[in-house]
Specification:
The protein is mainly alpha-helical. It is built from 6 helices and 4 strands, in the order H-H-E-H-E-H-E-H-E-H. Helix 5 links the parallel strand 3 and strand 4.
């Protein structure tokens, strides 16, 4: 009576099980770093205080506020996705204009082959400083972006 069969005994506080899982996670992280390089995976708690992200305004205050950091991250590849005629190109061009105002350089990968240079100028883009690509496929667009 009152005895627990060996197969049902639990480890006090689950320490052995937890340390085994932790070792497996650490091993997986080491393998990922070995394959993809240092910093390719990390514990968020180790880096969360180090995030000081420089941003570029979208030119639309409500969107900047909704993004939570005041715009889009500087120096990163940004993809704007949405249905036809939803304002994707206008948002992209507005971000590029904001980047150029602050001395930045931007590339526009025009997957839809629909960039209107006159509209871009009206939004404040310096066309002579704009890098543009009009790829034939999505794969080509990703390769160019890299």
């Amino acid at each position: 009576m009152g005895r627990t069969p060996n197969s049902q005994k639990s480890i006090p506080n689950g320490h052995a099980e937890t340390s085994g899982k932790l070792a497996a996670v650490n091993l997986a992280m080491e393998q990922i770093e070995k394959q993809y390089g240092r910093g390719s995976i990390m514990r968020f708690g180790d880096v969360s205080q180090k995030f000081d992200i420089s941003v570029i305004s979208t030119g639309c205050l409500p969107l900047d506020l909704a993004l939570g950091v005041g715009g889009v991250p500087r120096g990163r590849i940004i993809e704007i996705y949405g249905p036809e005629a939803s304002g994707k190109t206008t948002i992209c061009l507005s971000i590029i204009a904001q980047a150029q105002k602050h001395g930045g350089v931007a590339a526009f990968i025009d997957a839809e082959h629909a960039l209107d240079p006159l509209w871009a100028q009206k939004l404040g883009i310096k066309l002579d400083d704009l890098l543009i690509s009009q790829p034939d496929t999505g794969e080509q667009a990703l390769e160019i972006a890299e």
